[in-house]
Amino acid sequence: MAGPSVELSPVIAASTHWLSRAYPAGSPDTIAHTLSELQARQAVTVAAWLRYPTEVDAALVAIAGPGGSAVLDWRAGSEPEDEEAEEEGWRTWVDEVVVSWAACLLADPELARRGVDAVIAAMPSADDRPLPYPRKNGAAPAEFRRLLEPDLRDRDAAVLLRHPDLLEPVAEMHRDTLLYLLDVEQPLVA
Question: What is the domain extent for residue 169?
Fold first, then answer.
């Protein structure tokens, strides 16, 4: 599925990488790592497209920069030993809000479905842009199947990535804005 702009590619890649490192796969094998990363990428993609829905939004974040991972690193306890190291430069492309929203989507299947529905509804119809395959019998679009309908292997691979309690320090940072954007009523705190 084509997103609003390729300008978001560095933000999506860096934010996915951050989530994959902060919440590693449930087992050390390559397949588990790949399945976990695919789920993170799908959640980050939905979150990025919700946060930057137009080409102008994406161009502006490409110019100004998304802000980096410093606060996320601190909240998740995943600070690098030397953030000034050359190999840590990708962290400057991490978007705190996108990662927070992706954490919300990974932890809450109903919220993920609403997010994907909002992205699909907002996609402009264009002949030169591939559109998501239509849903069959209520099934998830193939582009977001691992996010919306993870099978047993997906769940086993992303046991940390989908654990609501582990994601909470990151998810709570910007959850209210996502709930407002998706028109979801917030639960009343007793």
Answer: 6-181
Q: Which band of pLDDT confidence, cut at 50, 70 and 90, is reported for residue 116?
A: very high
Q: Span 92-109, mean pLDDT?
A: 96
* Count of domains for the chain: 1
pLDDT of residue 76: 82
**The model's pTM:** 0.86
Sign of the CA dihedral running 148, 5, 101, 96: positive
Q: Who contacts 33 (Cβ-Cβ below 8 Å, separation ≥6)?
A: 20, 24, 25, 157
| 72 belongs to a structural domain | yes
Q: By the 8 A CB rule, do 132 and 143 touch?
A: yes
The pair of three-digit structure tokens given for residue 80, joined into one six-digit string: 């690098």
Please state the φ and ψ torsions of residue 116, each to the nearest 5 degrees.
-65, -40
What percent helix, strand, coil does the chain show, rounded to 5? 60, 0, 40
Closest CA to 2 of 102, 105, 128, 101: 128
Domain annotation covers residue 145:
yes
Please state, for a pLDDT cut of 90, what percent of the chain lies above it.
Answer: 60
Evaluate whether residue 190 is within a structural domain: no
